[in-house]
UniProtKB/TrEMBL annotation:
Its EC number is 3.6.4.10. Coiled coil: none annotated. The keyword Zinc does not apply. Residues 29-39 have a biased composition (Low complexity). Residues 1-40 are annotated as: Disordered. One of its GO terms (molecular function) is ATP binding. One of its GO terms (cellular component) is cytoplasm. Signal peptide: none annotated. It is an enzyme of class 3 (hydrolase). The lineage of its organism: Eukaryota, Fungi, Dikarya, Ascomycota, Saccharomycotina. This is non-chaperonin molecular chaperone ATPase. Keywords: ATP-binding, Chaperone, Cytoplasm, Hydrolase, Nucleotide-binding, Repeat. The keyword Metal-binding does not apply. Residues 17-28 have a biased composition (Gly residues).
Length: 774
């Protein structure tokens, strides 16, 4: 027997095999046609004793549903016999059982043919590599079977159908006499009572079993098995370890992309002749790009399941070999297999790692050869062939540009971060499978507040919420059927699960509310109108043709709560908050500072609605010509991002400064920082509220007069009022570590040491700036 192929270690010999039309299999069922070429070399994807999954044409024959067709010589070579019950599954995963059946005619080497029903039960795609071995157990007779039907059917007909199938498993679905049947449950497959379980228990026994299956196999015999029929109910009662078959309906938030893929991929795969009439060849290459977790791989699996195509997957650099020419040989083998098993899809994940730009620092001679080979293979696909190549990447601009043209990867489809409607779809799909008590309004609120969450993040939130509900049930010794996920579980999960798209940059989740900001009521109201109105009343803005403010500049003396107000605004509005300190963006390498600016705005767009807060923005935006060239380049990048070609939808720029006159005037024109808000020293009422907020956290003596302190702190900034309280507390501790409270004498001493940083000249400076109209 020729050596098996391994994608990670390409072989040098080609596997032989005879081809031709398959003859009749067991039960008189013909096998599927073999590949046209007798020299097909299976692409090197998995290790020894693995076989390529291909479809059997006997799917409508009930007696052949559980058959695993294989070449007789192949059966003997692996030490098995025809008629044996075998286990087949991917390495490290659960599998299914079937009856090993030789085909009368030839079948391609290293290939098995199974029915669509068995393939669905195991969650296999055409082209998957599975290991076939003798099943170590022996199925027993099913004590009871619950079977769902899509219409009325006689019990005897169902019994006859189940006896024809022979081996039955929960989750197996098939058709008999035009009626769809689904085995919903088999007696003994119930989960144990959750009250008897613990999250600390070692539950690895089943999964570590050599022949762990997705569902326990049983023999069916009408005289020994109690049959329960549920017309109109087809859902599997307890899915257990059954694989999830990904369909288009399983994916939320990608309606536009699904429609595009269906129109662009299904026609070339199944009806390429339509293009001949117009003397045009269809697109063969598609590039899916977008952040991690948005559903690129899941979308491919849906395409593969819906189109019934042979799928070959290349995971980026996994086929790269240290030996000269072997990487290119592995690529050629994969394309050869795809041509042999049409319709076929070649999926290249992380394609940027396989074919980087040939003129970049990351690319060497080996990478250039791989790029050239892929270009040649894609150009060599015939116009009438039914092979599609799909690449996926998070960095489309890192791919060699020669691949991004018509005829190769001519169609680029962005799989972006879902909007609120997309998040609602994803949440709804997940919640269909979870016992919960959430109301429709609560689900809508969850979708609205998960800004920047991709599909994988939302799944993680659901999983975390379920774990909290299960733990609560275990703590209370609840029965499994009494456990439900509630809205508080989701609220708590959102605290721990943050958007993955935002993890590459500094993301702060403020916990500051308007009540934490003493005074400044007019400023609070102004900011609410500027930020919250566009989010809560977008229809009004659209109807009146009014654009929401793009940017807001908070200016005023130091310590007057500008940063605190920005945090409270983000918290109260429920927005993602990106805090950027001006000097932190500068980098000694040319171009790195500008790249950092672009990345911040890109992440903010992805997680919109969001706020980018530039503290000390004067360090970034000094008037051009008055600073070094590096500062000018950063300012130019900032201007382009704020009001450039790419729209800044759903992103609000909030900036703070103590030196507003040093900021470049181009930054403060309409469309950029078009609202200037003066945050001055707190007045008497504001100082009183600041003291009240501080006193709530302190133990204050009865002799302390808050009104007197409010008056005597005239001219102080908010930070200085807070500092006064802290200083008084420290003085009390210096007096005695066992002291009960902070007294009036401590405040008197602290007042004597207080130095006011806000001068008359400083206030005149801000007043003059305000009058200048800038």
């Amino acid at each position: 027997m020729p050596p098996k192929a391994n994608l990670n270690a390409p072989v040098k010999k080609k596997a032989g095999g005879t081809t031709g039309s398959s003859g009749a299999g067991a039960n008189g069922t013909p096998g599927s046609p073999a590949p046209a070429s007798s020299s097909v070399k299976p692409a090197q994807i998995s290790a020894s004793k693995s076989f390529i999954v291909r479809p059997s044409v006997s799917s409508k024959n009930l007696k052949a549903i559980m058959n695993v067709y294989m070449n007789l010589s192949e059966i003997r070579s692996i030490g098995l016999s025809a008629g044996e019950i075998v286990h087949l599954g991917k390495k490290g995963e659960r599998g299914v059982v079937g009856v090993l059946t030789p085909t009368a005619g030839p079948i391609a080497v290293d290939t098995i043919e199974i029915s669509n029903q068995l393939r669905q039960l195991g969650g296999f795609l055409l082209g998957d590599r599975v290991v076939v071995s003798k099943y170590s157990g022996r199925p027993s007779f099913a004590p009871s079977v619950t079977i769902g039907t899509d219409q009325e059917i006689e019990e005897k007909k169902i019994q006859k159908a189940l006896e024809s199938v022979g081996i039955v498993c929960a989750g197996l679905q098939f058709e008999s006499d035009g009626v769809k049947l689904a085995i919903r449950q088999i007696g003994g497959d119930d989960l144990p009572d959750m009250a008897s379980l613990s999250l600390d228990d070692d539950a690895t026994t089943a999964t570590n079993s050599k022949h762990a299956t997705t569902a326990t196999p049983y023999f069916f015999q009408a005289s020994k098995t109690k049959l329960t029929i549920t017309p109109g109910e087809m859902d599997i009662d307890n899915r257990g370890d059954l694989p999830d078959i990904v369909r288009y309906s399983s994916i939320g938030g990608l309606k536009k992309q699904i429609a595009m893929l269906r129109s662009k991929i299904e026609l070339p795969l199944h009806q390429p002749s339509l293009f001949k009439r117009f003397n045009m060849s269809p697109d063969r290459g598609f590039l899916l790009h977008g952040p991690p977790g948005t559903g690129k791989t899941m979308l491919l699996r849906a395409v593969a399941n819906e189109t019934n195509a042979h799928v070959l997957t290349i995971n980026g650099p996994s086929i790269v070999s240290k030996y000269l020419g072997e990487t290119e040989s592995a690529l050629r083998d994969i394309f050869e297999e795809a041509r042999s098993y049409q319709p076929a899809i070649i999926f290249i994940d992380e394609i940027d790692a396989l074919v980087p730009k040939r003129d970049s620092d990351e690319s060497g001679e080996a990478e250039s050869r791989v790029v050239s080979t892929l270009l040649t293979l894609m150009d060599g696909m015939g116009a009438s062939g039914r092979v599609v190549v799909i690449g996926a990447t998070n960095r489309p601009n890192s791919i060699d540009p020669a691949l991004r043209r018509p005829g190769r990867f001519g169609q680029e489809i962005e799989i972006g971060i879902p909007d609120v409607e997309g998040r609602l779809e994803i949440l709804s799909i997940q919640l269909e499978r979870i016992p919960h008590t959430l109301k429709e309004e609560e689900i809508n609120n969850l979708a609205a507040k998960t800004h920047g969450y991709v599909g994988a993040d939302i799944y993680a939130v659901c999983r975390d919420a379920v774990m909290r509900a299960v733990q609560r049930g275990l703590d209370k010794s609840m029965n499994e059927k009494d456990m439900f996920v509630d809205v508080q579980d989701f609220e708590n999960a959102l605290v721990d699960i943050r958007p993955s798209a935002m993890r590459e940059i500094f993301l702060e989740t403020p916990k500051v509310h308007w009540t934490d900001v003493g005074g400044q009521e007019p400023i609070k109201q102004t900011l609410k109108e500027m930020v919250e109105w566009p989010l809560s009343h977008p229809d009004t803005f659209l109807r009146l043709g009014v654009n929401a403010p793009r940017g807001i500049l908070l200016y005023g003396p130091p310590g007057c709560s500008k940063t605190l107000i920005a945090k409270a605004l983000a918290t109260e509005a429920g927005l993602n908050f990106l805090a950027v300190k001006g000097p932190e963006l500068f980098n000694k390498f040319v171009g790195e500072s500008e790249r950092a600016v672009r990345e911040i705005f890109s992440k903010a767009r992805a997680a919109s609605p969001s706020i980018i807060f530039f503290d000390e923005i004067d360090a970034l935006s000094t008037a051009r010509g008055s600073a070094e060239a590096g500062g000018d380049r950063v300012l130019t990048s900032l201007l382009n991002e704020m009001d450039g070609i790419e729209a800044l939808n759903g992103v609000i720029i909030l900036a703070a400064t103590n030196l507003p006159d040093t900021i470049d005037s181009a930054l403060m024109r309409p469309g950029r920082l078009d609202r200037l808000v003066y945050v001055g020293p707190p007045d008497l009422d504001a100082r009183r509220k600041i003291l009240q907020i501080q006193f709530r956290r302190m133990s204050i003596g009865s002799d302390v007069d808050i009104e007197d302190l409010s008056v005597r702190t005239e001219g102080c900034s908010g930070a200085e009022v807070v500092s006064l309280c802290q200083e008084a507390g420290l003085l009390a501790m210096n007096e005695s570590l066992d002291i009960d409270c902070v007294s009036k004498r401590h405040f008197e001493e602290a007042l004597s040491k207080l130095k006011r940083a806000i001068t008359k000249e400083m206030l005149e400076y801000f007043d003059e700036f305000s009058k200048s109209g800038r």
